[in-house]
Amino acid sequence: SATATFAAADLGATSGRVMVGRAGPAELALTEVHRFPNRPVALPDGLHWDVLGLYQGVLDGLGHAARSAGIASDGIASVGIDSWAVDYGLLDAEGTLLGNPYHYRDGRTEGVADRLHRALPAGEHYGITGLQRLPFNTVFQLAAAAGGTQLAAARTLLMIPDLLTYWLTGTVGAESTNASTTGLFDARAGTWSDAVLDRLGIERALLPALRHPGDNAGTLLPGVVSATGLPASTPVTAVASHDTASAVAAVPATGDGFAYISCGTWSLAGLELDAPVISEASRAADFTNERGVEGTFRFLRNVMGLWLLSETLRRWAGDGLPTELAPLLEQAARARPFAALVDPDDPAFLSPGDIPARIAAYCARTGQTPPQDRGATVRCVLESLALAHRATLRTAAELSGRDIRVVHMVGGGSRNELLCQLTSDATGLPVVAGPAEATALGNVLVQARSLGVVGERADMRRLVAATQPLRHYRPAGDESAWSAAARRVGLD
Ligand code: LFR
């Protein structure tokens, strides 16, 4: 089967992009045709996504894709959309969006999980969903909205990629990799959980029928055709619409025994499994069992990730300081090792704000001297992340009974050479870094698979490994120094 051209829209927490991807049995190449900022908006009722702006960005990007594919002459074979998980829009009986979707970092879910677990105990909830307890899981957001007028008027809940798909095609569905992040989904059965819905008094009708990666999600509405110049017959394909699921689909692993860290705003660190691991131990360690392509499970934990760095840079930019990354990373590389360490998953770091001040406060609270300059602050963030990567992968191996022989770092953070080297040093494992655009590649590959131009998961991975530039790191330095550092910050 021949090569084909696809459009992949990938929305991240700080920017969205539309890529044109060429894929075939021996070919895989991406071109970015449009990138636009994703800027959350604080309203009096909380922090929101500008979802109309994002949709417009997708339309503009599809217009660019249509024009660039026109040059390649075979046109766009299909369109796919992925984004972060958990967040949703509500539609009323007429299919109109009710209000602006909330940002998962909005503070209104504080304390909600504890309240909800009085109605449905945490152990029982986890036993069904296998989902790690993050304060912003969809189920907790819905509990925070309970009793409000919007939820009362709502007839349909759509996760962000499903909402954008609905605007493109008019079809309603719930893509399964994203549905598995809601806390309303039965991990083993792979369906919405009637047990959870009943216990929480959530109407079953609110949740659309499931779609799976590769399913057809309709063709373009007339307004979309005129806005983009794409033919009306262009299909939208349900990809692994949870960005992490797409990224893991494109991990260039060529054998077993691999772990992955999808490094972006978050570090999603764990393993791909054929069956979920749902036990008291996995719950205590806060491991999730989210759905991947081909019925796989992503057994992982969310580590706070490069959010700590990007939010630090945002603060420094606000102070008028230079925030070019390369010189800061050079200073960090020269800074004294293990001078100050934090647990990146401390809840203090979750909400937007002055991260350098919160790091200093954490250090003061734990009897450490706070980082004295900006290089030291960046070093503190990256070493702390490497320690969290190490702890998370060790726990994943232990809980699943798997051996890890190699760590694949994918996503934008895989460009950060210092983070990759520190992760290799901390884990004592070889690290393969790249591709940085794993999510968009996974998006394209699932579309290509659906059209039969590439094979199954192992073939997709071989194709990524054969076509994308990768960087290799070997563990260096003194392992015992990392053990001691891990003990110091409680990450052993
Ligand atoms: C990564 C991600 C994570 C999810 C978080 C919030 O972009 O999708 O997998 O836990 O964002 O949705």
Topology:
Elements: E1 4-11, E2 15-24, E3 27-37, E4 41-43, E5 46-48, H1 51-72, E6 78-83, E7 88-91, H2 112-119, H3 122-129, H4 138-145, H5 149-153, E8 156-159, H6 160-169, E9 174-175, H7 176-179, E10 185-186, E11 191-192, H8 194-200, E12 210-211, E13 216-219, H9 222-228, E14 235-237, H10 243-249, E15 258-263, E16 267-273, H11 280-284, E17 288-291, E18 297-303, H12 307-318, H13 325-334, H14 355-365, H15 374-400, E19 406-410, H16 417-427, E20 431-433, H17 438-450, H18 457-467, E21 471-473, H19 479-488
Helix pairs in contact: 10-17, 13-15, 15-16
This protein binds beta-L-fructofuranose.
Task: Offer a quick outline of the entry.
The protein has helices at residues 51-72, 112-119, 122-129, 138-145, 149-153, 160-169, 176-179, 194-200, 222-228, 243-249, 280-284, 307-318, 325-334, 355-365, 374-400, 417-427, 438-450, 457-467, 479-488; strands at 4-11, 15-24, 27-37, 41-43, 46-48, 78-83, 88-91, 156-159, 174-175, 185-186, 191-192, 210-211, 216-219, 235-237, 258-263, 267-273, 288-291, 297-303, 406-410, 431-433, 471-473. With 492 residues, the chain is of the alpha+beta class.
* Poorly predicted spans: none
Number of DSSP E strands: 21
Helix content: 25-40%
**Strand composition percent:** 15-25%
Q: List the strand order in the largest sheet.
A: 17-18-16-15-19-20-21
First-residue to last-residue Cα separation: 50 Å
GO biological process, one term: glycerol metabolic process
Domain Carbohydrate kinase FGGY N-terminal: 10-248
Family: Belongs to the FGGY kinase family.
Domain Carbohydrate kinase FGGY C-terminal: 259-450
